[in-house]
C-alpha cells in the first residue's frame, strides 16, 4: 500500500517548478543558518571545506563547496581513468548490444540515456559506471581523463530522486530525468559523462570558464544538491579495476580502471 502512495507523491513533487522553488530557498541568505544543522544531519566533515561555514552565503553555496587543497589527490598513473566524483557505485559492468542491465532491477538502453544521439553506436559494447552522490558527498564533478570536449548536450526532463527508492520504484529514472551530457575524446577513444539531475536539484552547471581541453581531475561541472553521474566508455577502450563492485565507495581522483591507447 505505501509504495504506490510514495510513488505518486514522488511523481507530484518531481516537477521542475517545485524543484526551482526548493532551489530558490537554498540559494537565499535565509537558508544560511541551516548549514551547521544540514552538515550534522548528513555527517558532512565541515573541516574539509576550503572555507569556514560562516563564509558561505547560502545553503546552496555550502553544498557546492570546494574542498581544501590536497584532500582529493588525482591518480597520475599512465592510461588511468579516475572517478569524477565522490560516490557509491550503484551500477557497473559491460554494455551488451547497447543494453545496460540491472541497475537496481531495471535495464536501460544507451540510446535512451544519450537521448538518441548518433554517438550511441560508439558505446554499443562498451563499459558503464553509475555513480550516486548522496547529500553527504562532495558535489563537484571533475574530468575522468585527459582529453578534449567534442560535444555537449542538455536534455530537459523530470527531477525524480536517484536514491535507492527512486531507482527501484520509479520507472527508468536515469533516462527520464534532466541530463547534461559531455562527450570527450581521449587517448583511448571517447567517453560520455552523463550528469543526471534529481529531486530538489535546481540545476546542473558547467564551471565557467570551461576550456575545451581538460586534464584529469580538472573541474567540469557541479550539482546543486544530490544526484548521479553515469560514465559510458566506448567499445574496446576500457578495463575496470578487478576489486570494484556495486556498493563500493570511491573518491574523486581514485582510479576506476585503465584506458587502452588507440
From TrEMBL:
Classification via InterPro entries: PS_Dcarbxylase, PSD-B, PSD_type1_pro
Catalyzed reaction equations: a 1,2-diacyl-sn-glycero-3-phospho-L-serine + H(+) = a 1,2-diacyl-sn-glycero-3-phosphoethanolamine + CO2
Principal place of residence: membrane
Active-site residue numbers: 86 (charge relay system), 142 (charge relay system), 227 (charge relay system), 227 (schiff-base intermediate with substrate)
Pathway entry: Lipid metabolism; Phospholipid metabolism; phosphatidylethanolamine biosynthesis; phosphatidylethanolamine from CDP-diacylglycerol: step 2/2
Listed cofactors: pyruvate
Lipid bilayer topology: Peripheral membrane protein
Note accompanying the cofactor annotation: Binds 1 pyruvoyl group covalently per subunit.
Modified residues (Pyruvic acid (Ser)): 227
Keywords: Cell membrane, Decarboxylase, Lipid biosynthesis, Lipid metabolism, Lyase, Membrane, Phospholipid biosynthesis, Phospholipid metabolism, Pyruvate, Zymogen
Function, as annotated: Catalyzes the formation of phosphatidylethanolamine (PtdEtn) from phosphatidylserine (PtdSer).
Name the record gives this protein: Phosphatidylserine decarboxylase proenzyme
Lineage: Bacteria, Bacillati, Bacillota, Bacilli, Bacillales
Gene: psd
Amino acid at each position: 500500500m505505501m509504495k504506490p502512495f510514495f510513488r505518486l507523491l514522488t511523481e507530484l513533487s518531481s516537477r521542475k517548478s517545485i524543484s526551482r522553488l526548493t532551489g530558490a530557498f537554498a540559494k537565499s541568505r535565509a537558508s544560511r543558518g541551516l548549514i551547521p544543522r544540514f552538515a550534522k544531519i548528513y555527517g558532512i566533515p565541515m573541516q574539509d571545506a576550503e572555507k569556514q561555514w560562516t563564509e558561505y552565503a547560502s545553503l546552496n553555496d555550502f553544498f557546492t563547496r570546494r574542498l581544501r587543497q590536497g584532500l582529493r589527490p588525482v591518480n597520475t598513473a599512465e592510461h588511468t581513468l579516475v572517478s569524477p566524483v565522490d560516490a557509491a557505485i550503484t551500477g557497473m559492468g559491460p554494455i551488451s548490444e547497447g543494453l545496460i542491465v540491472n541497475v537496481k532491477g531495471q535495464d536501460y538502453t544507451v540510446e535512451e540515456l544519450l537521448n538518441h544521439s548518433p554517438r550511441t553506436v560508439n558505446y554499443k559494447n562498451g563499459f558503464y559506471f553509475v555513480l550516486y552522490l548522496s547529500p553527504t558527498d562532495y558535489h563537484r564533478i571533475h574530468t575522468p581523463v585527459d582529453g578534449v570536449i567534442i560535444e555537449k548536450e542538455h536534455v530537459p526532463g523530470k527531477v525524480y530522486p536517484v536514491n535507492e527508492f527512486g531507482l527501484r520504484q520509479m520507472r527508468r529514472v536515469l533516462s527520464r530525468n534532466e541530463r547534461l551530457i559531455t562527450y570527450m575524446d581521449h587517448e583511448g577513444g571517447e567517453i560520455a559523462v552523463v550528469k543526471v539531475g534529481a529531486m530538489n536539484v535546481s540545476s546542473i552547471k558547467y564551471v565557467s570558464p570551461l576550456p575545451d581541453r581538460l586534464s584529469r581531475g580538472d573541474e567540469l561541472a557541479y550539482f546543486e544538491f544530490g544526484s548521479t553521474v553515469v560514465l559510458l566508455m566506448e567499445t574496446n577502450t576500457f578495463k575496470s579495476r578487478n576489486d570494484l563492485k556495486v556498493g563500493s565507495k570511491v573518491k574523486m581522483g581514485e582510479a576506476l580502471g585503465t584506458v587502452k591507447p588507440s
